Structure formats: C-alpha cells, structure tokens
Amino acid sequence: MKTMSVIAMTFGLMASPLLADGHATGDAAEGENVFKKCKACHSIVDGEGEVIAKGGRNGPNLYGIYTRVAGTEEEFGKKYGKSLVATGEAGLEWNEADFVNYVADPRKFLREYLDDKKAKSKMSFKLKDEEDAANVWAYLVSVGPEVVAEGEAETSTASD
Q1: Contact 73/93 with Cβ under 8 angstroms?
Q2: Average pLDDT over residues 93-110
Q3: pLDDT(10) > 70
Q4: Which range, of 14-18, 101-105, 112-116, averages the lowest pLDDT?
C-alpha cells in the first residue's frame, strides 16, 4: 500500500507542471508539436531574451500569455489590430477558454466578445481542433513564467 502511495504521489508531482496548477487542461508535450503550426507567425522568447521557440514576427511573442491583457505585448505594440486591442480594453486577460475559442476562429471570437459585427482579426489562421488548441495552451503555460496558484500568493505574503 505504501508503494502505491509513493507511485501515485510521484505521478502527481510529475503531472503538476503540465497542469500548471489547474490553468491548463491539455497535454504540453502534444502542444509543443502542434505549436509548429503557429511558428510561422509566433515565437516564444522569455524576458531574458532566451529563445524557447524560434518563430516569425507577424504575431506577438507568446511568452507569458497566461493572464496577459489582450493586445498588450510591448514589443509587438502598434502591430495589433484595433479589435484585439479593444478586447483588452474591455478586460480580456488570456485564459484557456478564451484562447481556445480565439484560435478556433479569431474573427468570430472578436465579433462575439465585442458584440461588434464589424470586428476584424489580423490572424487568419484557425486552429479548429479544440484538443490541439488546449494542448498548445498547456505548452504555452508550461514554458511561460511560473504560474502561482490562486490563494498561494496570499498565503506566502501572509507568512512573510
């Protein structure tokens, strides 16, 4: 029985980075493979300049996308479309559900989010497979900055 507990705990610890404290439901390893489709336009470069995934510059750097306000990646700046910037101004912070819906059909997502039939997206690529999109999200979260679980930050500051 003790052996089974140790095995279960080991697998739980191994899986936790992939689940990113509940912020991603997909498979990060699979997402890394699917991300190859995204590399034509997007790269992943951390704040220190370390290239995690080399890609194009037609789209913003996706490092640290989790909870980033839409349309605000600094280096991409004024290249964002007006509709995407408007979603950020309306309060969109990227999370798995919105990301999966956005990449399935960017224009449709923006039109629904903004309730604006004229909203446009500069991203023409569509990743319609929901599982693939969830896997890409898991990959982006796994290579991004460490995600602090909700409530964990409050606990650590209270004990400092």
Answers
A1: no
A2: 98
A3: no
A4: 14-18
Whole-number Å distance between alpha carbons of 21 and 55: 27
Alpha carbon distance 34, 108 (integer Å): 22
CA distance 87 to 107: 12
Read off the pLDDT band of 128 (50, 70, 90).
Answer: very high
What angle do the packed helices 82-89 and 106-114 form, to 10 degrees? 40
* Cα distances (Å, whole numbers) of residue 71 to 22, 25, 49, 89: 24, 24, 20, 9
Q: Which fold has domain 46-142?
A: Cytochrome Bc1 Complex; Chain D, domain 2 (1.10.760)
- Residue 93 has a CB neighbour count (10 Å cut-off) of 14
How far is the C-alpha of 6 from the C-alpha of 36, rounded, in Å?
Answer: 36
Q: Answer yes or no: are the C-beta atoms of 57 and 40 closer than 8 Å.
A: no
CA–CA separation, 114 and 117 (whole Å)? 8
